[in-house]
Structure to design on (320 residues):
C-alpha cells in the first residue's frame, strides 16, 4: 500500500513538474516572439508564438500576440480568430479586445473596432493604447473632436505613447490647425525619432504651411525609414514640383505610381511635369491613363483638353 502511495505521489509530482516546465517554456517563446515582433521580424515572431501555443494551448496572451502578427501580415480574419480565442480563454484580457479592435480597424470596420476599444476600456480604464486606437477609428469617421479627446486621454495615461501624439496631430491637421498638428508631430518624434508616419505627416503639414525646406527634410527621412509609404513619396513629389525641381518630382511621382498604380494624383501631376518639360509622348501616356481610368467625367474632360494641347487627335475613340 505504501509503495502504491509513493508511486502515485511521484506521478503527481512529475505531472506537475511537466506542466510547470511547459508553462515556463511557453512564456519564454512568447517573450522571444514579442522581441521579434518589435523588430518587425514577423516570420520569426509567428514561429515563436506558434511554439508558445503548442506548449500551452490556454495561453491567451500568445494567441492575441500571434493575432498582432497576422494583422501586420494583412490577414485580419486570422488575426480576429486568434483574438477571439484569447478572449474565450480570458474574457477579462483588455489588450485582446484592443488588439481585435485594431484588426477590425485595419479591415475598415470602424464601428466594430470602436465597440472593442470600448470593451477594452471598460476592463482597463487606463489602457492608453485603446484610447489612442479608438481616437484613430473616430478620425476615420471624421469625428475629429473625439479623436482629440481620446488621444489626449491616451497621453495623459502614457506620456511616452508616440502614436497617440501622431493621431491627435492628424485630427488637428484635418481641422487646419497646422501649428497644433506640427506640435503634436514634434512630440511624437521626440519620443520616437524613427516613427516614419509622424515624419511623413509633419512633412505634409509643413508643405501646407508653405515651409517647403522643412517639408523636404521630413519627407526625405520618411521615405528612408519607410520606402513603401505612398503618401510620403507623393507629398515629396508635390514639394519638388512646387520648388520647380522637375526631374526629382517626376522621379517621386513615378515611385508613388509604382506603389499605387491607380494613383490619379501621380499620373496627373507627372503628366503636367512631362508636358512642361516638353516630353510629349510621356505626358500623353499619363493623360491617356486618366482618360481611361478616372472615375469622374470632369477628370476625363480635363485629360481630353490636355491631350488636345499636346496635339493628340482622334480622342473620341479613346473615351471610355
Amino acid at each position: 500500500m505504501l509503495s502504491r502511495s509513493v508511486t502515485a505521489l511521484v506521478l503527481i509530482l512529475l505531472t506537475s513538474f511537466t506542466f510547470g516546465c511547459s508553462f515556463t517554456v511557453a512564456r519564454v517563446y512568447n517573450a522571444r516572439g514579442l522581441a521579434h515582433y518589435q523588430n518587425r521580424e514577423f516570420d520569426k515572431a509567428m514561429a515563436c508564438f506558434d511554439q508558445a501555443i503548442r506548449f500551452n494551448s490556454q495561453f491567451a496572451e500568445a494567441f492575441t500576440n500571434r493575432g498582432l502578427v497576422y494583422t501586420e501580415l494583412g490577414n485580419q480574419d486570422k488575426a480576429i480568430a486568434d483574438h477571439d480565442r484569447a478572449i474565450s480563454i480570458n474574457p477579462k484580457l483588455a489588450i485582446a479586445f484592443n488588439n481585435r479592435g485594431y484588426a477590425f480597424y485595419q479591415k475598415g470596420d470602424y464601428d466594430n473596432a470602436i465597440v472593442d476599444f470600448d470593451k477594452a476600456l471598460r476592463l482597463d480604464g487606463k489602457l492608453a493604447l485603446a484610447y489612442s486606437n479608438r481616437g484613430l477609428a473616430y478620425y476615420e469617421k471624421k469625428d475629429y473632436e473625439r479623436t482629440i479627446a481620446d488621444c489626449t486621454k491616451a497621453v495623459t495615461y502614457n506620456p511616452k505613447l508616440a502614436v497617440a501624439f501622431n493621431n491627435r496631430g492628424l485630427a488637428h491637421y484635418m481641422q487646419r490647425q497646422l501649428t497644433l498638428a506640427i506640435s503634436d508631430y514634434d512630440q511624437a518624434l521626440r519620443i520616437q525619432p524613427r516613427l516614419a508616419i509622424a515624419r511623413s505627416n509633419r512633412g505634409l503639414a509643413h508643405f501646407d504651411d508653405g515651409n517647403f525646406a522643412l517639408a523636404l527634410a521630413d519627407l526625405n527621412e520618411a521615405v528612408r525609414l519607410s520606402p513603401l509609404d505612398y503618401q510620403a513619396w507623393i507629398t515629396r513629389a508635390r514639394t519638388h514640383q512646387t520648388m520647380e525641381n522637375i526631374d526629382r518630382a517626376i522621379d517621386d511621382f513615378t515611385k508613388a505610381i509604382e506603389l499605387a498604380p491607380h494613383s490619379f494624383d501621380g499620373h496627373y501631376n507627372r503628366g503636367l511635369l512631362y508636358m512642361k518639360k516638353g516630353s510629349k509622348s510621356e505626358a500623353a501616356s499619363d493623360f491617356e491613363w486618366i482618360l481611361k481610368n478616372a472615375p469622374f467625367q470632369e477628370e476625363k474632360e480635363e485629360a481630353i483638353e490636355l491631350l488636345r494641347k499636346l496635339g493628340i487627335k482622334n480622342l473620341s475613340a479613346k473615351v471610355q
In short: The longest helix spans residues 2-38. Residues 33-112 form a domain with the Serine Threonine Protein Phosphatase 5, Tetratricopeptide repeat fold (CATH 1.25.40.10). The CA atoms of residues 42 and 69 lie 6 Å apart.
